[in-house]
Amino acid sequence: MIDHTHNVHAKSWVEEGSGRIDFPVQNLPWGVCATHGIVVAIGDKAVVLRTALQKEILQFSNEITNALMQNSLNDFMSLGSEVWTSVRHAIFDLLTGDPVLEILCEQTELKLILPATIGDYTDFYAARNHATNVGKMFRPDGDPLMPNYLHLPVGYHGRASSVVISGTEITRPHGQLKPDDSDPIFAPCKLLDYELEFGAFIGSGNTIGQRITMDDAMEHIFGIVILNDWSARDVQKWEYQPLGPFNAKNFASTISPWIVTIDALAPFRKDGPARLDSDPPVLEYLQPVTEDVLDVRCCVSLSSFSMRNDDVGAMQLTKSSLSNLTWSFAQMLAHHTSTGCPMNSGDLIGSGTISGETKDSRGCLLELTWRGTEPIDLPDGTQRRFLQDGDELTIKAWCESEDAVRIGFGKCAGVILKANPEG
Ligand code: MN
Predict the structure, then answer these.
(1) What domain range is 386 assigned to?
(2) How many angstroms does the Cα of residue 109 sit away from the middle of ligand 1?
(3) What pLDDT is attached to residue 19?
């Protein structure tokens, strides 16, 4: 809901910086620091909740205070959307009232860690342009979309243990590969790719046997982060039938460290997702309610080791938007729990690769280079079909509209390291 914390004229006493800043007082995203505990970003600084609570500059009930003193956001997220909003209001009031410098630290001092203990991670496949492109490449005969695609959000259960924070180096994985002209081999992945996605953190869950309905779904989501679902395409191609991705997806998925809350995204919600007139109707339990679509822009850039060495700026590969999804996070959650599958505080739901209709909005190298047949020229004179050792991949995201202050997500970045020699 839009309230006074989204006021375009609101200003904090904290120096927010100039130009396009990610963290104005209208944003207030949540993170966790290894040494300071729970923090909220403001400008290029952060509010240290532990300090503000210990000095009684912020005061809440015992339950909320205990949750905010932890080293992860799980307990706070489990308290529900009314508590999240009331704490957002308190922090907003603090940052727009009289200056209290002792609660701040520099963001550069923070060692940000995963913001929550992620018990379960599920990755969806919710953008039809991505599914259509991949379908055309892997199944050139017939309809690129599988018969179920427009009836339900397709997903697979991922591996929560492999979710890492932005900045973590990614070692090229080994895997079982099947060259076209020989028997399978065990070797370093040759077709390493990224996937441009967002992840939704579940705040309050549901007990086993009870579903989360479309009416309630957005109230269960605490906020979202940028997600890069690193993918070993050659491993995937050989292993994926009949049960879907397995080792191709379980070596690393990187998330941005700041959770931008659904509260902060209130001015950037739209009705939808849009469907074509020729699409089949969705069943009642997946009918969109109101403003389930989040309009978040995003871009992907790549810089090779030599580009960074020579101070050549990163090359932009993709510009896309979360509003390109065919299924909203609310629909993913309603479908995921339609059997009574329990969600817990801190569970993470990935959107699937977000590709738009145009070539420059394709969300992974598999699509951008059309399976390697259309390589990309980099400024250092080399070409990319898939990621090379030393490549750094960076995803940025932001929201902007005429009626609201621009808010950003920070970045989700990772550098590829060469495969371990011992395999
Ligand atoms: Mn994915």
Answers:
(1) 121-417
(2) 32
(3) 73
